[in-house]
Amino acid sequence: MDIQLKRGLLDVCVLAAIKDEDSYGYKIIKDMKPYIQLSESTLYTILKRLETAAMLTVRTAEHGGRLRKYYRITPAGKRRIEEFKGEWQEMVSIYRFVTKEDTDE
Amino acid sequence: MDIQLKRGLLDVCVLAAIKDEDSYGYKIIKDMKPYIQLSESTLYTILKRLETAAMLTVRTAEHGGRLRKYYRITPAGKRRIEEFKGEWQEMVSIYRFVTKEDTDE
DNA sequence: TCGCATACTTCGTGTTACGATGTATTACGT
DNA sequence: ACGTAATACATCGTAACACGAAGTATGCGA
Lengths: 105, 105
What we know:
Two copies of one chain form a homodimer. By secondary structure, chain A is of the alpha+beta class. Chain A has four helices and three strands. The longest helix of chain A has 25 residues, at 75-99. The structure holds a DNA duplex.
């Protein structure tokens, strides 16, 4: 999939990946993989950005003798997902503009 | 609309704006305005990029004593639009991932 | 013990959308 | 005649961003 097309989707996808239960980096990548692929460096950049924007909170916990960072969505993060639903409608209208046939043909 | 979300749409929108008949910068901006807004500097960057990618050709013509650059879509440009339709299906599946409700709620 | 999966981090780079600014001509109102 | 807006295209610098590459470290199975 085209990188540019992915850009607007990535942040909101990561939020969606943690919206039902807390998750951590590696798991987020695996959960998203069937829908959208991203590298580790990209994910951690996004997580940092979303944390700065207060759309998620981070908690470090031990798991199997190893440290994991668990991410939890905040109300602001959930609002972002709702906002995206509205933007999606705009996208749909753009899609129709792009694909609409000329009346002559 | 979120800038990131626009990114993947812009190129293909410009192609859509010229796909039925040749057009020029100012007109393209006005035609796209109801769906997606972009500045002149952005448009001319995109037009240059699409020309380099051989998705459109340019022709300079006089109009009302003033020079205008008319842009015409190429077969490669039309293929790009078709390709976008496929990518859109991926977008739809991502949208569903983002908005799907937890089965418990 | 060797390699693989897990898990997170940092750095440099190329693409890109945009605002600011500039140039020039036409059209229109007063 | 004169000023202002609209038309039309161009360039420059900047900041956001996704990514590959590389690094660090641990647990686990063959």
